[in-house]
Amino acid sequence: MDTNKITEKTTSFKINGKLIELTLPPTFRLVDILRDCLALTGTKIACEVGRCGACSVIMNGKLVNSCLIMAYQIEDAEIFSIESLAEDRLHPIQEAFLQAGALQCGYCTPGMVMALKSLLDEKEQPTKEEVLTALSGNLCRCTGYEGILRAVDLLTQKN
Amino acid sequence: MVLDITSAGVRWKKRRDGEPKVTGKLKYLTDMVFPQMLYGAILRSEHPHAKIESIDTKEAEDLTGVTAIITYKDVPGLNGFGIVIQDQPVFCVDKVRYVGDAIAAVAAETKEIAQKAISLIKVTYSPLQTVTDPELALDKSAVKLHKGGNLLHKAAFKKGEAKLEEVFNRCAIIVEESYHTPRQMHVYMETEGGVAVPDEDGGLTIYAPTQHGFKDQLQLSRILDIIPEKIRIISSPIGGSFGGKDELNIQPYISILALKTKRPVKIHQSRRVSIKAGLKRHPMKIFMKTGSDESGNLIAHQVKIIADTGAYATLGPAVLDFAVEHSAGPYRIENVEVEGYSVYTNNGVAGEFRGFGGNQITFALETQMERIAEKSGINPTELRLKNLRQTMDLGPVEQQIVPTDGAKAVLTEIIKSPILQKNTATIPSGQWKIKGRGYSITMHGGGLGYGRPDPSGARLSLNSAGKLEVSFGFEECGQGLIPTIDMIMTETFNCDSSDVAIVIGDTAKVPHSGSSTASRGTNMVWLGIAKLKAAFIEKMLNAAEKQTNMTKEKLSLGKSGIWFCEQPEKPQRLILTYRELATSLEELPTVFTSYHFPTTPHAIDGGHFLYTFAGVAAEVEVDLLTGRVAVTKMDHVISAGPVVNPMGYLGQIEGGANMGLGFTLMEDAVMENGRYMTENLDTYLIPTILDIPKETNVFAIEGLVNGDTYGPRGVGEIGTVAVAPAIVSAIHDATGLWLNRLPVQADAILKAIEQKALIG
């Protein structure tokens, strides 16, 4: 293609523990790298302005909206997407989501799980306020969030 | 019973479709890619109302990587769609009527090239006067948007004395108000999208969310001018819909492009495009005049509804019929006169959305009830009880309905909510905050209603893999159709989830079951399996008898296979697995049934037969400095028959409630002169986890009147219908202010606070 031909650059980063090297335009978005280049479609796309959290991933230990991160920002970064959580068995957060009825259509779920993981990695027993703040960047239209809070209660043994 | 994990006990089951959702492994239809796939994009109108002078695609065609560009000239069949009335052009020919109207579409090698190509198409417009006020649109002098004028549909209902004005003259109390409701957006998290894959003999497979696969098949067959059988619709799973994906969206474009290019074509709309093009909830202006005698008996009720249906019909007529039908809700009023108008404008298209006109009318009706109670000095509960429908009463439009005591049951129960107890001290949580409490009730029809074909079908078989395969033409959009089918199957046949295979959402494999809308899925699944149960067991046991040489009277279906039981109901041992049975048979047992959603015998268009009921209690906290309202507690009482799937039921009520909270306090896709003032989720705000009540309880009343054999009703909509008036009533309790316009505006509240000198 010859439209908007821009200089591409080789970018290397780690995704879910695996070293990846891709040649990309510097403004190519992380969400597209994940979904289109790497077929990691667990990361969803829903607003593309960093408001809904459906594309949340953990980058260098911090929760980010992958629609707002561009290729030039991920050089040498360590990124974890939803696909990294379950290995032989489900991650406790995933298990709690199933047990609590924390999902319906499931489209926000990967982002929501990553946001909660980011919080719980930092603090095992967060306060209710901390939970609400940490998840306030992730929109869910189906559950009304009650089920998600049930899952948090199961994880933090407050039930 | 209070519905929660504890009360549900062993019936609280993890969703069988849950694991691929929490792991991100589930491929939604918008996640799919195919070899040789092209990307599509749709050029939508720049103007809300304009003449198209010319469309020049030359420059776009010359762009490298562009494979096809299509306009109205490329529509093989009918250039129109719409579930009932096909008045929405696939591509506009000479005129655009709203900012989402499609003019051209492109298929290209990459998303970027497709977008670039769209920007290179030159359309010259002559803007026309826009029609944005539905009341003005009805004026004779108004510009006509469609050949038949601007009135899409008129609906009316009248009972009692011919001259209602004379009855009003006899009323001791009259409340006359106008209510306004917002253009709420569905905000399904997965925007519209999908892939069309052409096959070798001119047919297509469409992978795109919809709430009625066979309806898409029919609509596309008209547009593409090919027989329905050559179009296969795969419509599930769906990342949320709430009614919004019931109508066609991107399907015509990917289909035509795929046929033209002979390659798979994908479109996944951005949120910006979704907002411009997608359906919304009908904004309604509702005039209501209600009169009672001195003791609070309602004797006159006059309602006029103006619904802004936007540029095209979709299900606008049915939504209006629903609002008209529910204008007096669960109350029996002697003299009623309702007129409704669904009006075309150049605003975005309004259509089907959870609650289906019920949310708007219930807000008006329940606020009227509270106002009458206040004006007459009668306790609002007493007023409601006085006028409430009784078990054997006719339905709201004087049609025969299934006898129900749901109205009284939810009222009796909701007033017991701890939120509403007067001994609850009003302790402000901060110096500048006051609390208020209120409640409301509603009734809501299920199914499509009289005069609308509402058939369903179900198939049950032992498949070759040894699973009890059950099949419906429904879709899983998150509501929990799959776990509900799973629970009904395992409880009907005493089997395990792993014994069951569920086939849905694929027109090549499923029977016609009608749409996954109108709170009908659960009821239709329950009825279908109930109808097939005896015949299926009979066939299975006949086959098992031959295999085992044991009398079928001593055999039964159970976990993993056929069980032997010396005494009835006491299975002793598994003697034949389903798999063994399947491999031993030449012809696998299959049963099929078709049936209809239960419908009233009375010929009243859209009149329903089965109703659900809800009561909602809300506690709010009003910030005296900002006028901001927070809902701190909500309780819900639902009467919808037996709870099939406790997790799903609870989730529907909780989710519906917070969608209702958004409708009441924050959501409105504001339009100015036919253009959306909001482009994305940074300005169209829906409730986040910080906005929901600190405490929510759901109480399910499972009992039905003796002799009611219609089983569990669907609860997809009922949780959202009565939320607004409960919150508005609670705001009134706190501030003394009655609000007629949603979403609630902080400045209206501040004004009331100033007037009442609540501060200082």
Automatic annotation (TrEMBL), chain A:
The keyword Iron applies. Coiled coil: none annotated. It comes from the Bacteria. Keywords: 2Fe-2S, Iron, Iron-sulfur, Metal-binding, Oxidoreductase. InterPro entries: 2Fe-2S-bd, 2Fe-2S-bd_dom_sf, 2Fe-2S_ferredoxin-like_sf, 2Fe-2S_ferredoxin-type, 2Fe2S_fd_BS, Beta-grasp_dom_sf, Diverse_Oxidoreductases. Residues 9-85 form the 2Fe-2S ferredoxin-type domain. One of its GO terms (molecular function) is oxidoreductase activity. This is (2Fe-2S)-binding protein.
